[in-house]
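User: Hi! I have a protein structure encoded as tokens and I'd like to know what sequence might fold into it. I'm fairly new to this, so please keep things simple.
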């Protein structure tokens, strides 16, 4: 059973009043004498906010008498429990309505309204921690870049590499491909199969159910290791990068993400043992532990 502190609700953004977004919020408790924070959980393409609920519950239970910060998970337009489509998709090509920039702006508006209406705080008073999976990590990075001094920590779970066209696996058809570089248990046939499966789902030009057009992601976020992000007070944010298990070829690419903060504030890549791409679904306890470490570093 989930803690009573987790309350589901809906909200209409003032910028898109004709549509409602479903979210779950815990307002935080027991941190009256500390800097308040808001932890925001960001979905990938193929999961919804329900996968974060065990993590949110774990944080509430683990923090106990020490108190816990405000926790927010939501479903984007056309995703999970949010049945309403993005209003600006009307009249546009099916599956090509809004892009990643629109998602980031919607998130900013959502945080502003939740902060003021539910948490009695202005966004300036409420620094953020982002916990993202897959494309949620892209959203987190773009938000931290476009709204500097707002994000104090990022927990990036098996991030989607915005700077690649999903070619971090070797291309067996490339002229410089050497099959001897493959792990012992990976054949060229397995490599081809995995590349094809991944591209069929995650390639930027593949249409998804929520209508998020991802074709420009590599243009708006072309590098994995920059820009350096600026957190609250002008300090660099904490950044923890988590990779799924087993790791075949992605590790070297994920290391680049550690470059968006100062070296002493970067952790990872940390391997989530026995987890696939959706780390929070496969092992919510692992995510609770990683997030608890971050909250501890923030003094919570």
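Assistant: Happy to help. Inverse folding works backwards from shape to sequence: for each of the 300 positions I chose a residue that suits the local structure. Here it is:
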């Amino acid at each position: 059973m989930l803690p009573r502190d987790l309350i589901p609700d809906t909200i209409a953004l003032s910028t898109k009043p004709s549509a409602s977004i479903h979210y779950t919020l815990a307002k935080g408790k027991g941190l009256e004498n500390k800097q308040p924070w808001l932890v925001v959980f960001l979905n990938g393409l193929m999961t919804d906010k329900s996968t974060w609920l065990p993590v949110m519950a774990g944080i509430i239970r683990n923090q106990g008498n020490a108190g816990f910060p405000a926790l927010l998970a939501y479903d984007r337009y056309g995703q999970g429990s949010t049945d309403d489509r993005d209003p600006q998709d009307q009249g546009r090509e099916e599956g090509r309505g809004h892009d990643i920039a629109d998602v980031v702006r919607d998130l900013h508006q959502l945080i502003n309204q939740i902060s003021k209406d539910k948490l009695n705080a202005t966004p300036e008073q409420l620094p953020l921690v982002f916990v993202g999976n897959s494309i949620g990590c892209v959203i987190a990075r773009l938000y931290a870049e476009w709204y500097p001094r707002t994000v104090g920590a990022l927990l990036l779970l098996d991030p989607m590499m915005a700077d690649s066209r999903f070619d971090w696996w070797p291309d067996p058809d490339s002229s410089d491909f050497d099959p001897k570089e493959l792990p012992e248990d990976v054949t060229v046939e397995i490599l081809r199969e995995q590349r094809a499966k991944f591209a069929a789902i995650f390639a930027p030009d593949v249409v998804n159910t929520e209508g998020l057009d991802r074709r420009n992601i590599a243009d708006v976020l072309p590098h994995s290791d920059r820009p350096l992000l600026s957190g609250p007070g002008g300090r660099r944010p904490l950044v923890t990068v988590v990779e799924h298990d087993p790791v075949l070829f992605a590790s070297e690419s994920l290391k680049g993400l550690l470059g968006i903060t100062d070296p002493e504030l970067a952790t990872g890549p940390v391997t989530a043992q026995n987890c696939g791409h959706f780390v929070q679904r496969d092992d919510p306890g692992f995510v609770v532990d990683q997030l608890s470490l971050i909250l501890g570093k923030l003094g919570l």
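A useful reference point when you look it over: The first helix runs from residue 53 to 63. Feel free to ask if any position seems puzzling.
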